[in-house]
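U., I forgot to send this yesterday:
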Amino acid sequence: YGAFIVPGLIMLTVMTQSISNASFGIYFPKFIGTIYELLSAPVSFFEIVLGYVGAAATKSLIIGVVILVTASFFVDIEIQHPFAMAAFMVLTCLSFALMGFIIGIWAKSFEQLQLVPLLIVTPLVFLGGSFYSISMLPPIWQTITLFNPVVYLISGFRWAFFGLADVPIGLSLLAIGGFTALCMAVIWW
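Result:
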């Protein structure tokens, strides 16, 4: 069980850290009034987004790797598909950092900054199979759980470790790719 929950713990941490780092990074300059210096600097909006999202995603990726290395001291972890694991982790860090950037732009107070991560993302992760396989649930709850988008991310990431997934790997890739594209489109808009 210890090895089984490692991918779920990594995804829980990576998702919440990506959102928090990116949202706080863009919100704080708005809060203290230094955003105008950034907006008047000779950099494009693409470079601004790349800087904030890249920094948040990189920090979250490093935290995820630290958790993976630390967990390997306590449980035997075998990664069957290391490239898929890296791809899922990078895409998750990137997409949730993009989402955090959107939240940071939208937020008008520190309470709003924490609203989405605490009341939406964290429950979705806990109910998305981060600590259990959804095949353990009764059939009706398995069907309901499939409407949770986080299930696809955690399942795909867990597949990279064990070669087993609750949902097809293609759907997991489609879910993370679609979420990343959606966040990019909202930021571009």
